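Per reviewer request, we include the raw input and output of the structure prediction for the construct analysed in the revised manuscript.
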Amino acid sequence: MAYLALRMRHLTILLVLISAGLSAQVGGISVYEFLNLPNSATVAAMGGHHIALMDDDLSLAARNPSLLNERMHQRAAISHAFHPAGISNSYLGYGHHHDRLGLTFQGGLQFTNYGGDLVRRDPTGQAQGTFSASDFALTVGAARQFEGRLSVGANLKLISSQLAGYGSFGIGADLAVHYVDTSGLFGISLLARNAGRQLGQYDATTGREPMPFELQLGINKELRYLPFRFSLIYRYLDRWNILFDDPEGENNSLFLAFGEEETTRGAGAIFLDNLARHLVFNGELLIGKSRNLRLRFGYNHGMQRELRLRDFRSGAGYSFGFAFRTKRFSIAYGRTTYHIGGGVNQLGLDFSFAKR
């Protein structure tokens, strides 16, 4: 036990030191933001972030490499998200466990296509033909378990982005540690996502843009006497203030989604709003003797506050989905609501090539 605690302490210090040398960014001001899109229907259904559950779902390890384990041996995962305006986001991954090395490996490809018939216009609005835009990230990762409860993993990403003839490439990494208790009902993860650097800029005359780095802490708890488990993820552990200063939103309370309003916005309300924006909550109901059917939901308060409308209830920040799993395959569906005009549907499939 002392050995596990010592390793956890050392790895925690390492992740914090890595994050200290990086500039934490919130969406919209960093390059390669497509890396934050849900890479699977599971993640999409559970608030866009799900980092503390270790099972046989290979798609979860694409975001948190410390979740890689031998149950993912010879498993493949594929996912496709249908965004508005013909935009799509796809992921393909494969896992392999090596007994002699005691390591579980993965390889994956995330591809985001924004379309090939986007209209190019000059400053006066005149059409100047069409162009295409796309992003992709090639990921390789590995993890090792210690004493059956502590797992350490890392992903390496080669990133490329193409926009109207301009190109950019970079390199990124995910570093993570996961711990599960002796009962197997509680897990905790510390994850540093998208650490790295842009190596080639879209325009050589401009400086390098920051990576969408983020330090996350997540817990997952399964109830002992009920077929239900939930997760709580704390985002931007390395940055406290993630509020967007919206003068028109000063009179909206933290609980606007539930219909409550206040005439003034005091320091306490601002503190609670900022705190809640760090949090993502999700849950999963496990149905059946073998828990094959799983109903999922999630709530991302930061997304809800940033994408809400003042005069309409858009449902932004809420997500739901389901999965049907067997030992050989799984099919999953997730839906994330971004706007009153609609949401994003995502389908996922994973299956095992291993002989049983």
